[in-house]
Structures are given as structure tokens and as C-alpha cells.
Amino acid sequence: MKNSILVVDHLSHRYTTQWAIRDINFEITRSGVLGLLGSNGAGKSTTMNIICGVLSQTEGEVYINGIDLKKHPEQAKMHIGFLPQKPPLHPDLTIDEYLHHCAGLRRMPGSEIRRSVEEAKERCGIAHFSKRLLRNLSGGYQQRVGIAQAIIHSPALVVLDEPTNGLDPNQIVEIRKLIKHIAEDRAVLLSTHILSEVQATCDRINMIEHGHLVFSGSLGEFDNQIIPDTLIAVFAGTPPMEAVGKVDGVRRIVELSGNRLRVYYNNEQPVSHRIIEESVRHKWDMTEINVERSSLDAIFAKLSGKEIVE
Fold it and tell me: Is the dihedral of CA 119, 124, 127, 129 positive or negative?
């Protein structure tokens, strides 16, 4: 625990009679981005608010850099930076004024504030707007200022709640790059319900559904939760749908554009080998065949216990 940035141990919380989360356990031991993934209402916000000290848990413990958050909240919060879904900005302040104000709230020594503000501005790419009022910044730059306030005191853990929500596609790309940049020397916990956000930003994933932790592991492990059961076959000419459909182990065929077929097969059958053999035997002019990886949407649906519509 001494070497852990964050330890969540048997965490549970109940609102009146209903449990919002139940027996959540995970640990962050190194820098990088951990995605806290789940659908709306799954328990992400409850977990995140407890970790940030906004909410007091019903059961369990949270340790930040080895410090018990419930017993020593002020000490523990010194190691946390937090950006809620709506950045806590003061629109009538300039970037410089706002970040100096945030540094003061963090009880940073006066001799360190100026240097820390400059470093945070430089890291977040907002130094050239230092004297601009926050209300006059675009949504993307306001989000950058929000991240700057979260790292102003060089915390070991930065918690981000839906950090790209409401941004345009270009702003989303830039914020994702920034998140990965600041995660080079600290741990980032990113809460989101967007699967593409996880795929583009996170190294590891914790998925919460119905208040329970249903998955914890790397993005690759998450992607391998469902065994592939489809492949794409490409043909030089007209795809022989009926003939491919008769190959042993093939369940059904869907015709796609560009002389391609999506072949659904039984997992236990080596269908790709059989299709290749039949293609050679009957001269189907097949030019390519690839087993499809399971989509993140399908994996999400399986782990959350929901059905996905094709």
C-alpha cells in the first residue's frame, strides 16, 4: 500500500435503502490513464466522488498515497487533483488570476505559486492566453484551464469526470492528447461512458455496472472478453453467398459493399481454413479473409448484461 497511488478497498455506498456501489476493489500503482467505464447510473460518479472526498462512503476505505482519506482528509486531498464535468471556472477572472486563486486554495507556499502557475499553463498550452478572461475562451480552452487547476499543485492522482463532454471533434482530439501528456508522470483516473474515449486515451480499464466492478484489466484484455465469431471474406468478383453459406460451421452470411461477405460461424469450428479450401477448389477468386475483433460496443453490452442490436 505504501507504493500505491490509490487503493480502493471494499468500497460500498448506500443512498437510503439502495446500494449505489457494492464492494468495489481496485488499485493504481503507477502513472498512466485508468478508465472508469460504465453506463449512466452505473455507480461511476459515486465512486469518483468518494475518492475525491466529496462523499463519505458507507463501508470500505480509500487510501491516497497511503493516507486514509476518511481519517486524514486534508492530508490525502493534497495528493488529488479534480476536474468535474463542468469546469469550476470564475468567468470574470483571467487565466493568471484564476490559477493563482486555485493555488491559494491548495494552500501552496507563496514562493512556489508563480512557478507552479507558469508550469501548469505551459503544460496545458494556455500560456499565450494568460491575460484573457475565462468567459472569452472557447470550450476547449476552458477545459484546458480546468485541467491546469487540477495539476497546479503537482498531485499524484488526477481525477477527470467526462473531460471531453460537449467539445467539438478537434477539441476532443487535443484534450485527449493533453490527458495522455499529463499522465506521463502521474496517475489519471478518467470517468466516462464513451467507449471510444477509453480506446483513445486509457491504458487500463475498470468497468462498473449496477454498482459492481465487472471488469478490471488492460484494453487488450477488455477487447478479448468476447471470442470473435465473424470474419470478412473479400472476392474479386461476385461473392458466392449460397456456396459459402453451405461450408460446415457457417451460421449465416451478410453481404456487404465492395464484394465482401460477413460470415458468422460457430466458435468451435475452424471455418476460415474450410472457406479457403473451398475457395481454391471452386475458384471463387477470394482475395482476402480476416477474422473480426469484437467491437467495444459488443463487449460493453456483454459485461453490462445488456443486449446489443446488430
Answer: negative
